[in-house]
Automatic annotation (TrEMBL):
Keyword flag Oxidoreductase: yes
Annotated organism of origin: Oscillatoria acuminata PCC 6304
Protein name (Swiss-Prot/TrEMBL): Heterodisulfide reductase, subunit B
Keywords for this protein: Oxidoreductase
Single annotated GO MF: succinate dehydrogenase (quinone) activity
Occurrences of domain Cysteine-rich (ranges): 8-89, 158-247
Domain of life from the UniProt record: Bacteria
Spans through the membrane: none
Enzyme Commission number: 1.3.5.1
PANTHER family documented for this protein: COB--COM HETERODISULFIDE REDUCTASE SUBUNIT B 1
Length: 301
């Protein structure tokens, strides 16, 4: 175990509490097993998933300044497990920290709006960190490896980073936004074999799905085809919105592509928790649209 107890202000986001409830479930199981304490921000609001700024940048900044301020009140980093939430809230945090010196009047405007709602002001005293970064940089892969009780030997995992986790913020100090390795390093740590394919850092197509469905399906289908061709047993994603497009809509994507896909798509905490010996049902692996049975059979479960 890390020498210091890890504690975070937990921002679960909307999708993990709705359509991807298994992500919420598996994050709770994983962090409990690792001894990571999560203080859930029950009063937090939706980050907007990038849509608020289409109407008003001030709206996106104010809503997420409030979310960050809730974590600041606890004097804790804000933990996400959604790439989209990470990208949106992390980028707002970057912007507002810059504005502390470059445009204090704008920041004062935001804090004035928060004050009217009896909310604490944004101070820029914490950080926004995805679960992936917390595992790699805070908990540490050496420590994680010590907790592995069920090595995922023989399982070929293809990471699907998507775009928000890697490039929504100006900088990420934890990985290369164009040639990332953090998820592949996690795979190696739990005994799985990383599979590389061209689309692992590209958009899943979800942002297009409400108005350009065919293009969204084509994007998702291309990524799935590439991963299958590379020999993947499953995709693993750190984003529930990517999961919706790649798992929940995979039957529709397969119909659009004109051929069978059937590639299981796991949430990152599900994969890691399996290696810690947590039972599949406790991780919600029976909730997926594309059956995860082939993955579990390969692991002898």
């Amino acid at each position: 175990m890390p020498s210091l107890t890890l504690k975070y202000a937990y921002f679960p986001g909307c999708v993990a509490q709705g359509a991807c409830g298994e992500l919420y479930q598996s994050t709770a199981a994983l962090t409990k097993a690792l001894g990571i304490e999560l203080l859930e921000l029950k009063k937090a609001s939706c980050c907007g998933s990038g849509t608020f700024k289409e109407d008003s940048r001030l709206l996106e900044d104010t809503v997420n300044a409030r979310n960050i301020a809730l974590a600041e009140q606890l004097n804790l980093p804000l933990l996400t497990h959604c790439s989209t939430c990470q990208g949106v809230i992390g980028h707002v945090d970057e912007r507002l920290k810059d504005f502390q010196t470059s445009d204090p009047a704008y920041l004062n405007q935001i804090n004035g709006l928060l004050q009217k709602q009896n909310c604490s002001p944004y101070q820029g005293t914490t950080e926004v960190k995805h679960l992936l970064w917390a595992l790699v940089t805070d908990y540490g892969l050496d420590e994680l490896q010590k907790r592995v009780t069920r090595k995922l030997s023989g399982l070929k995992c293809a990471a699907f980073y998507g775009c928000y986790l890697l490039r929504a913020q100006k900088t990420i100090p934890y990985d290369d936004p164009y040639q990332p390795e953090s998820m592949e390093n996690v795979f190696r740590t739990v005994g799985a074999t990383p599979v590389y394919y061209p689309g692992r850092t590209q958009c899943c197509g979800w942002p297009l799905s409400s108005y350009a469905t065919d293009q969204a399906f084509q994007m998702a289908g291309n990524h799935l085809d590439e991963a299958i061709a590379a020999g993947a047993d499953c995709l693993v994603t750190p984003c529930p919105l990517c999961h919706l497009n790649l798992d929940s809509r995979q039957p529709e994507v397969a119909k659009f592509m004109g051929h069978k896909l059937d590639l299981p798509v796991l949430h990152l905490p599900q994969l890691v928790a399996l290696a810690l010996g947590i039972p599949p049902k406790a991780l919600g692996l029976d909730r997926h649209v594309v059956s995860t049975r082939s993955v579990l059979e390969k692991l002898g479960l």
